[in-house]
């Protein structure tokens, strides 16, 4: 079975086509600047170099049509007909309390995703556009949705409830949901495989650190706490997101600067974090270069970032009454030697000891970077959220066919 995985944004779309016989990626790519006359399609077939095409792509339906054209193209395509694609899997950011697992798309599922628009106004509407675009181009091909929040639905109430009037939870479902669940789920399972130990016996802290970042306490294979909250704004300091702050900062800033709700929301999501503190970039590579060049604001941004990661690791070790493994993943976690070093060198109270030479190795395979004497295993495991979506989609479609 061939499965097309789609991650639709408001003006972009990423895709990968899998052959589930061996879980190989036949092609991948992205469409950017959807809605403009200078949209960009980048197509990366497995058998040749990537190609880039600039054209007018006014909506997601046209974007999917362009993707299908490339997948079936006589020169750069990887299949002869779209009929070879037997299922499509979508990433959906917010599943609320409604979805604890991945599901096949039907009218009820679509209605519920629409109802959840208010919890993820920047994401869920875009995912729905992706679903509708596939329907318009591929008819009744089975579609599945895999939710970022689903993995965290195992959190106990003591972890997900906020200490605010309970009526707000009952009426509006204001609570912690957590995100990056597909990634945290994948790397925790890969940790158990790498260590050769049963997942149910392990206490793991997974550190998904990219432009967006979150940590999760995974005990016995289940999420028991995570740093992001009702939205992806809470938790760690990120590329452009503030992360944790005193809630009173919001009304105080609105009053002093005469800001609207939308303006302060934009400030906290798009103009804060590393970008705000460094004054130069939201990219950790540039922050690190600035720090090494002695730039004080870059140094402060870096120190704030690593300090907050360590704080959450300490908190989650306490929440689980111990930790067996700390895992770094995602763009920064997988690639930044200096981030891993600075985070781990002040975790000696946990018995963490990393090997500087192992930490310098770059690889696409899971690897230990801790010493044999370390009381906590420290690993770097590349995440693969698209593969999880493909696997869930494949499983759901197979199960539906066998009913």
TrEMBL record:
Pathway: Metabolic intermediate biosynthesis; acetyl-CoA biosynthesis; acetyl-CoA from acetate: step 1/2. Mg(2+) binds at residues 7, 385. InterPro entries: Ac/propionate_kinase, Aliphatic_acid_kin_short-chain, Aliphatic_acid_kinase_CS, ATPase_NBD. Its cofactor is Mg(2+); Mn(2+). It is found in: Cytoplasm. Pfam families: Acetate_kinase. SUPFAM superfamilies: Actin-like ATPase domain. It is an enzyme of class 2 (transferase). GO terms for molecular function: kinase activity. The record marks 180, 241 as: Transition state stabilizer. CDD domains: ASKHA_NBD_AcK_PK. ATP binds at residues 14, 208-212, 283-285, 331-335. It catalyses: acetate + ATP = acetyl phosphate + ADP. Substrate binds at residue 91. Keywords: ATP-binding, Cytoplasm, Kinase, Magnesium, Metal-binding, Nucleotide-binding, Transferase. It comes from the Bacteria. Its EC number is 2.7.2.1. Mg(2+). Can also accept Mn(2+). The active site is at 148 (proton donor/acceptor). NCBIfam families: ackA. Homodimer. PANTHER family: ACETATE KINASE, ACETATE KINASE-RELATED. Catalyzes the formation of acetyl phosphate from acetate and ATP. Can also catalyze the reverse reaction. This is Acetate kinase. The gene is ackA.
């Amino acid at each position: 079975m061939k499965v097309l995985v789609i991650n639709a944004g408001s003006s972009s779309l990423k895709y990968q086509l899998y052959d589930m016989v061996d879980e190989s990626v036949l092609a991948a790519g992205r469409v950017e600047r959807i809605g403009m006359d200078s949209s960009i399609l980048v197509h990366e077939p497995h058998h040749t170099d990537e190609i880039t095409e600039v054209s007018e792509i006014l909506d997601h339906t046209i974007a999917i049509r362009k993707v299908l054209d490339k997948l079936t193209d006589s020169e750069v395509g990887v299949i002869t007909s779209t009929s070879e694609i037997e299922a499509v899997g979508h990433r959906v950011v917010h599943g609320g309390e409604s979805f604890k697992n991945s599901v096949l798309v039907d009218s009820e599922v679509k209605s519920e995703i629409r109802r959840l628009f208010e919890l993820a106004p920047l994401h869920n509407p875009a995912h729905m556009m992706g679903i509708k675009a596939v329907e318009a181009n591929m008819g009744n091909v089975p579609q599945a949705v895999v939710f970022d929040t689903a993995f965290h639905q195992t959190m106990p109430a003591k972890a997900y409830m906020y200490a605010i009037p309970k009526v707000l939870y009952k009426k509006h479902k204001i609570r912690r949901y957590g995100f990056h669940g597909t990634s945290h789920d994948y790397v925790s399972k890969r940790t158990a495989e790498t260590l050769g130990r049963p997942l149910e016996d392990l206490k793991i802290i997974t550190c998904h650190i990219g432009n967006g970042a979150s940590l999760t306490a995974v005990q016995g294979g289940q999420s028991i706490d995570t740093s992001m909250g009702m939205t992806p704004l809470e938790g760690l300091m990120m590329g452009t997101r503030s992360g944790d702050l005193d809630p009173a900062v919001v009304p105080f800033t609105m009053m002093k600067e005469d800001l609207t709700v939308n303006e302060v929301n934009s400030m906290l999501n798009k103009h804060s974090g590393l970008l705000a503190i460094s004054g130069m970039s939201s990219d950790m590579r540039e922050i690190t270069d600035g720090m090494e060049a002695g730039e004080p604001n870059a140094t402060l941004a870096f120190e704030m970032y690593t300090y907050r990661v360590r704080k959450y690791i300490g908190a989650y070790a306490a929440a689980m009454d111990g930790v067996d493994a700390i895992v770094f993943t995602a763009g920064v976690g997988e690639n930044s030697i200096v981030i891993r070093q600075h985070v781990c060198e002040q975790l000696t109270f946990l018995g963490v000891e990393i090997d500087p030479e192992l930490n310098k190795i770059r690889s696409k395979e899971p690897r230990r970077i801790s010493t044999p004497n370390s009381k906590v295993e420290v690993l770097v495991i590349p995440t693969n959220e698209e593969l999880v979506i493909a696997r869930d989609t494949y499983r759901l479609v197979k199960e539906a066919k066998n009913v």
